[in-house]
Please model this.
Amino acid sequence: MDAKRALEDTKGDMDKAKDLLREKGLAAADKRTDRAQTEGAIGSYLHSQSGRPVIGVLVALGSETDFVAKSEDFQAMANDLAMHVAAAQPQWVSVEDVPSDVVDKEKELIGAAARNEGKPDNIIEKIVEGRIRSFYQDNVLMEQTYVRSDKFEGTVGEMVKHMAATMGENISVNNFSRVAVGEVSAE
Amino acid sequence: MDAKRALEDTKGDMDKAKDLLREKGLAAADKRTDRAQTEGAIGSYLHSQSGRPVIGVLVALGSETDFVAKSEDFQAMANDLAMHVAAAQPQWVSVEDVPSDVVDKEKELIGAAARNEGKPDNIIEKIVEGRIRSFYQDNVLMEQTYVRSDKFEGTVGEMVKHMAATMGENISVNNFSRVAVGEVSAE
Model:
């Protein structure tokens, strides 16, 4: 085996090792969504109407290194996510953040409606399951379809994972905030 | 009474009526801090460090008319308030927003500490009162001393009232949000 060949093999192993580390990183990432990441950037978006900002959104996008946090792509994604939140109005970052009493109440309402329609129990269970999935798709950032389909087709969660894979480190939305004036509240 | 005079009288009455309405409006305003106002603007501030925004603040400043909301002074104040929030880190907008269990727990802690020091009951009451006032001054936006004393000397609440008087209509902070990355949480 000549030196060049050995180098190529090593390079192949390095790539494999990187892939493995990336896989492990992504797997571990699922377990630590609650942990505040030490690095990251704030994405922001202001929507103006009649000469003044009426909707504002902030998104805290966490990364593992300041190298990634400083990059243009990372900050652009943080701002894109803020624009998404302005339009799609999610209530929570991930499914785990939805309070269990909210889920229970939704399930109860859906179940009661299905029972009133005379549906059998085994069907009701499936209906509840399906509707809860759409509830998440409507209200949970990670489950929402990303509004700028020209930039990425899929859910926000898939987009963040794609970015994490590209950047080679754990990236996640720590939290977000949407503040508006002049909107009639739902109560 | 000639027509011109009648018109002037009517004008005088109109002004009085307006003043009365304004007074009532300001009095009523105290009761409706929770209500989303129909007009206003979003103030924002981003604090950057090492090449990316690490703190973001949004402030929803409510007004009664879009005329006021569109004005440069109003929007400048909204942005000034956002900068204040970034620095002073309030937890709530007004004293009424502090959950009663938080106040109760604070009072309990202060009272217990004073009793441990062997203070008499009538003194303890005064100590608790004074310390709760400082708790509000530390954590409630309206009670905080405005950080830009070169622009306004006094509390944020006084500044907002001053602005309301200048603009001639009810102005209030509906809510605010502060989002940061890389800050170690207090738990």
In short: Chain A is about 55% helix and 15% strand. Chain A touches chain B through 39 residues (CB under 8 Å). The helical segments of chain A are 3-31, 66-70, 72-88, 100-116, 121-139, 156-167.
